[in-house]
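Researcher: Sequence recovery benchmark, item below. Answer with residues only.
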């Protein structure tokens, strides 16, 4: 196709125009909904921020113009969920329907014949993590986090490896058929490290240098607390 040179001024003007239109539509929606509710309506507006600038170069500008438009006042204002609940603490409860921003609004981009092999190992790993935390605490492990012990470091790192294996990027990439081998390798590598860590914990033969290497290599969430993987009732009492 015939493409023109990118003009940042035109793009910025378009982002501003689209932001103004978006706010107008949201304002109308909020006013209509509020007229049928005992409290002001709230529109939750989450975004996959890593796509801004990556898939949508003007995305950050669009957000900027939205916030600027909302600052003008009127029946619609920006705020956090916590601020809204503080002002209106009595709310109805509802169970949201399963949905996503993916194709057709559900999960088919992540759960399909090309990726179905991934889900059973993930569920089994999550269940194993819960059992490992329960067993550690039942066997005398402290009920408070102590990041200095090898056992707790291994549990925390196993949690990191599990969360990395659970990344939605891997089935997304496989479904797209782009860097499929890379996604398969990352998925399998993180699950392998996860199971190796828990097996070493169960057999009381944790390899300290290997654990340190994994902590350096897969260093997400440095403050991760393994107790988060306990059953809900136990985690609440921790």
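Model:
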């Amino acid at each position: 196709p015939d493409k023109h040179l990118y003009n940042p001024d035109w793009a910025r003007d378009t982002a501003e125009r689209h932001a103004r239109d978006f706010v107008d539509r949201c304002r109308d929606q909020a006013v209509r909904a509020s007229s049928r509710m005992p409290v002001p309506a709230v529109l939750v507006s989450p975004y996959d921020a890593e796509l801004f600038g990556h898939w949508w170069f003007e995305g950050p500008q669009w957000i900027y113009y939205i916030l600027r438009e909302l600052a003008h006042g009127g029946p619609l204002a920006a705020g956090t969920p916590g601020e809204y609940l503080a002002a209106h603490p009595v709310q109805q409860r509802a169970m949201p329907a399963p949905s996503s921003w993916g194709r057709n609004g559900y999960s088919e981009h992540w759960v399909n014949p090309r990726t179905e092999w991934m889900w059973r190992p993930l569920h089994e790993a999550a269940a194993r993590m819960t059992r490992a935390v329960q067993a550690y605490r039942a066997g005398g492990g402290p009920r408070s986090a102590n990041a200095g012990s090898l056992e707790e470091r291994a549990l925390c790192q196993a949690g990191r490896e599990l969360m990395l294996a659970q990344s939605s990027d891997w089935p997304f990439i496989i479904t797209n058929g782009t860097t499929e081998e890379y996604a398969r390798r990352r998925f399998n590598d993180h699950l392998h490290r996860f199971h190796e860590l828990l097996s070493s914990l169960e057999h009381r033969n944790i390899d300290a240098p290997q654990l340190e290497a994994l902590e350096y290599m897969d260093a997400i969430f440095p403050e991760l607390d393994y107790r988060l993987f306990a059953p809900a009732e136990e985690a609440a009492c921790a």
